[in-house]
Amino acid sequence: MKKAARYMLSLVLTAALVFAMVGCASGNKEGGTVNIGVTDSLGGVNPFTIDQTEINKYALDLIFLPLMELDQDLNFQGMLADSVTTEDNINFLVHIDDKATWSDGKPVTAEDVAYTVLRLASPVVNNTTLMLYAFEGVGDDGFVEKGATGIDGIQVIDDKTVQFTSKYPMALTTFQNTYARYLHIMPKHVIEQFSEEELTTADWFNHPDVISGPYFLKDYDNDHYISYEANVDYWKGAPKIEKLNFKIVDASQIYSGLQSGEIDITHHTMTAIPQEDYESIEALENVEVVYGLPITNQSAFIQTKNIPDARVRQALLYAIDRQQLVDQLLKGHGEVVDGFLSSASPFYDDSITPFSYDPEKAKELLAEAGWDGSKTLKFFVNSGDSTFVNGAQVLVAQWAQVGINVEVQTVDLATLMTKAGTDEYDIMAVQYTYAPVDPYPDVSWLLSGEDSWTGYSSDEINAALEGTQQTSDVEEIKELYSVVDKKVQEDVPMFSVYIISAQGAVSKRLSGAKPSVYGFFNNVQNWEIAQ
180 in helix, strand or coil? Predict the structure, then answer.
């Protein structure tokens, strides 16, 4: 499958934090108002123009349901659809829940799905983030012909069933995670009034009056807040909470917001709680702390063009005490793995023993490789990740002890991304979330040869990755990803410094609401204020 770099960066980089001051109405109000504290800035609310960052996705999920979503246990749960099936990993049948209705009472239909995808694939709309080029009838650029009235690979079967046809084999989990979770279906009977040009500018998207989700969008400011009011006609049941707000704040304000009650709940991937505040938040009597699944990978990518000897790359890994970083930097809330997959993934192979801290082994490998210590490696780190900026200094000291000189260069995330894939760095560290149920798009992109971040490619890995798309059998896929992680452990084009289990918190005044990495809003209509 072809990859879209913009999609990968916007979708899976969890380190892209833009901090702002509180702009939402402060305090909790009687009558049912809940405030969600987040540290990511909103990119917009128009599904035809946004990229697929977490806050953009979840902000839209409340208004326009996706087809499917993951629950907190990483099972796919129907949202607009009640099933997605395939018999050949080419044709995917999506069945819309028979009960699904728009807020104006009209049923949600397969025509709504087909029309939404057609418009998302418009070259006039020009949104490349959904990788729609995977489907028949869509060009390799992700667009249909201008003025197209349909897509060969998106066919309406009946009122509630639509078929997606891929150009090449695709695992069911890839279809569900990459497409079913991110397609926000629009009401055809409303948006067909807009020209393709108007779809990107129409004011209707700022306060849509026909929705499928639990909440109407009332107002927003990209850097400060998003405000919602309950859709009392929501087909899954009227929300018990009348008003819902995202409060977009600086990470340093999360603790005080939870303490004062101005923030009721946080989210593991939209809310970056500083590590130094973890213990203080745990001590608050008015909140419950929930640590999330270990999914955020503090990845270190090695430019193999600059460090071509795998023995030197292995030495870099043997020379560092990763468990010490988990214990000291993360206060034990994380894990050490080799490769891409964490223990949260159904495809994780726990028989792969991570390289242990072994400075003597590192020295032996360097000697075998003829390393003379004269070269200073350039190590680029995201300046916005204060925890890892400190961790990087520990790594540098440990590398120095085995004879590897490394210089840390801290840069903002935007600058860091301009270095990715170039030969201007030797090591580059960034937080990256590899979707536990579908790591294929990320892993294949990052190991795709000269144009990738690592400059590394392996026929063995490529074959295993393509194999994951030929089957839907979990055990078969697990074996194939085990091949990938073992080869990555051997050749070390990247390594995981640690995997983070992020902290979440929820006010004890709420019931039915719990921080979770996935499935956070799946049943938001059941949240309520405890009496």
Answer: helix
Rounded Cα distance, 31 and 224, in Å = 23
- Run of H or E including 37: strand 33-38
HEC letters along 264-311: CEECCCCCCCCHHHHHHHHCCCCEEEEECCCCEEEEEEECCCCCCCHH
What DSSP element (H or E) covers 119? Answer: helix 110-120
Say if CB 196 and CB 120 are below 8 A apart.
no
CA distance 322 to 1: 34
State the burial class of residue 385 (Cβ atoms within 10 Å of its Cβ: 0-12, 13-18, 19+): buried
CA–CA gap between residue 500 and residue 478 (Å, rounded):
22
Start-to-end CA distance of the chain, whole Å, equals 52
Give the C-alpha separation, 73 to 193, whole Å. Answer: 40
Side-chain half-sphere of 525: how many Cα atoms within 13 Å? 21
3-state secondary structure 50-109: CCCCHHHHHHHHCCCCECEEECCCCCEEECCEEEEEECCCCEEEEEECCCCECCCCCECC
Q: Pairing relation of β-strands 161-165 and 296-302?
A: unpaired
Residues 149, 68: contact at Cβ < 8 Å? no
pLDDT tens across the length of the chain (531 residues) = 433 333 334 333 433 333 333 333 333 333 589 999 999 889 899 999 988 788 999 999 999 999 999 999 999 999 999 999 999 999 999 999 999 999 999 999 999 999 999 999 999 999 888 889 999 999 999 999 999 999 999 999 999 999 999 999 999 999 999 999 999 999 999 999 999 999 999 999 999 999 999 999 999 999 999 999 999 999 999 999 999 999 999 989 999 999 999 999 999 989 989 888 999 999 999 999 999 999 989 999 999 999 999 999 999 999 999 999 999 999 999 999 999 999 999 999 999 999 999 999 999 999 999 999 999 999 999 887 888 898 999 999 999 999 999 999 998 887 888 898 899 999 999 988 888 999 998 899 899 888 889 999 999 999 999 999 999 889 999 999 999 999 999 999 999 999 999 999 999 999 999 999 999 999 999 999 985
What whole-number distance in Å separates Cα of residue 149 and Cα of residue 139? 15
Angle between helices 359-368 and 310-318 (to 10 degrees): 160
Rg (CA), the chain: 23
Helix axis angle, 459-468 to 474-491, nearest 10° = 160
pTM to 2 decimals? Answer: 0.84
